[in-house]
Design a protein that fits this description.
By secondary structure, the chain is of the alpha/beta class. It contains twelve helices and 19 strands. About 35% of the residues lie in helices and about 25% in strands. Strands 5, 6, 9, 10, 11, 12, 13, 16, 17, 18 and 19 form an eleven-stranded mixed sheet that branches. It has a two-stranded antiparallel ribbon with strand order 1-2. Strand 5 and strand 6 form a beta hairpin. Helix 1 packs parallel to helix 3, helix 4 packs parallel to helix 5 and helix 8 runs parallel beside helix 9. The protein is globular and about 65 Å long. One of its GO terms (molecular function) is oxidoreductase activity, acting on paired donors, with incorporation or reduction of molecular oxygen.
């Protein structure tokens, strides 16, 4: 599967090598079942943001095969081909793409590709055995997956935030801090930080603390959440979702950037002479993405601040995603942060691949039928027809 930004090929998902669970992405071995997320982002050096955007690709690996696949990848590492060649003429002025093998990352200039793992923390029955892991097993497995991600040379590990069963991702900072203590290079991120139902004062404190513990290896992805009952659990009204997002993020930015804050808004008690502690590491707040499935207001917010915009290209048609990204790019340029093609965009596409389509459908269907992220609604056939999910042979995925 090709990942393309501004006409530049930045990654290639090849046919399986080294075993039935494995694929090869620019020299990197990963499980065959994966969500492929791609886009642009600013990259931090010594906790500072570079002036230019950089390419990002994130692999959301289906966790039912993840650990087995990565273990097998290590076992077959010597059989893997080297990093994929870079067509420098095709790159033009876009810079040099970082290529990856099973053990090392070779990097020269920005922009680069990044690969990683993103979990929503769902507790789902194993489709091969029918057994449902305990919450303790699922939490420990999340940490093991993050450690394995760094071991095989992946760049990013991200976790979502959910406060309802069957999820165990209620406290991303605790999870990421524990992982930070056991890793050295892995960039740690949230796949969603609920800016609507979480006090921005708490977000400012918690993620600045996480920055210090992780030596700056921290990103955030702001989101409103898609579970209606969560709002009243935290004293909020889902009908205020957009206003909460706008007001809370405006306060969060001030808390990170101003030593003393006087503030009054609609949704929380006023602040007078307040200082959030600890302060961001080296005075530089974590990089922020704004994630959205369908809300143009969020694309506008990301563009206004010059932050990253992550369009959830998982459950909606490509035409909808293109409209959202186009809006963000235009407004990013309008607000003077750079040209539209320099906007910091993240995208996604889901893939499960086998050598033939029959095997792919047969193996993926049990996971699809059991995973809460798919909502137990449309059939697999309807879902693949209406969304970016592709289940089939390599040629079907490419097409």
């Amino acid at each position: 599967m090709l990942l393309v930004r501004a006409g530049v090929v930045v990654g290639l998902l090849r046919e399986p090598v080294g075993g039935p669970l494995l694929d090869h992405v620019g020299g990197l071995c990963v499980p065959a079942g994966a969500q492929l997320l791609g886009g642009d982002r600013r990259r931090r050096r010594s906790h500072l943001l570079d002036e230019r955007g950089v390419g990002i690709g994130v692999l959301h690996l289906l966790e039912s095969v993840l650990v087995v696949g990565l273990d097998a990848c290590l076992a077959h590492a010597e059989d893997l081909p080297g990093p994929a060649p870079v067509n420098r003429e095709a790159l033009g002025n876009a810079g040099v793409v970082r290529t990856v093998d099973a053990h090392t990352i070779q990097s020269t200039e920005e922009p680069v590709m990044q690969f990683g793992i993103f979990t929503v923390g769902d507790v789902t029955p194993d489709p091969t055995t029918g057994r449902t892991p305990t919450e303790n097993e699922r939490i420990k497995a999340t940490v093991a997956i993050a450690r394995k991600a760094e071991e095989v040379g992946l760049d990013v590990f991200a976790t979502g935030e959910h406060h309802n069963p069957p999820f165990v991702a209620s406290n991303p900072t605790a999870t990421l801090a524990f992982i930070a203590a056991q890793t050295e290079r892995l960039l740690l991120s949230t796949a969603t930080t609920l800016i609507t139902t979480t006090d921005p004062v708490l977000i400012a404190e918690d993620y600045a603390k996480l920055q210090h513990l992780a030596d700056g290896r921290v990103d955030l992805m702001m989101g409103r959440g898609n579970t209606g009952p969560v709002y009243p659990w935290f004293g909020k009204d889902i009908r205020d979702g957009i206003p909460l997002t706008i007001e809370n993020y405006a306060l969060l930015r001030r808390l990170w950037r101003e030593d003393v804050v006087d503030w009054e808004g609609k949704f929380r008690t006023p602040l007078q002479g307040y200082t959030a502690t600890p302060r961001p590491l080296d005075g530089v707040p974590p990089f922020v993405w704004h994630g959205s499935i369908r809300s143009p207001e969020i694309a506008e917010q990301a563009a206004y601040y010059g932050d990253g915009f992550f369009a959830n290209h998982i459950f909606w048609p490509a035409s909808h995603t293109a409209r959202m990204v186009g809006l963000y790019r235009r407004r990013f340029e309008h607000y003077g942060h750079g040209s539209a093609d320099q906007a910091i965009v993240g995208l996604g596409g889901q893939v499960f691949m086998r050598r033939n389509s029959q095997d792919a459908v047969r193996e993926f269907r049990p996971y699809f039928d059991n995973a809460p992220v798919y909502g137990h609604g449309p059939s697999l056939e309807d879902f693949t027809a209406q969304t970016p999910l592709t289940v089939g042979s390599p040629q079907q995925v490419i097409e």
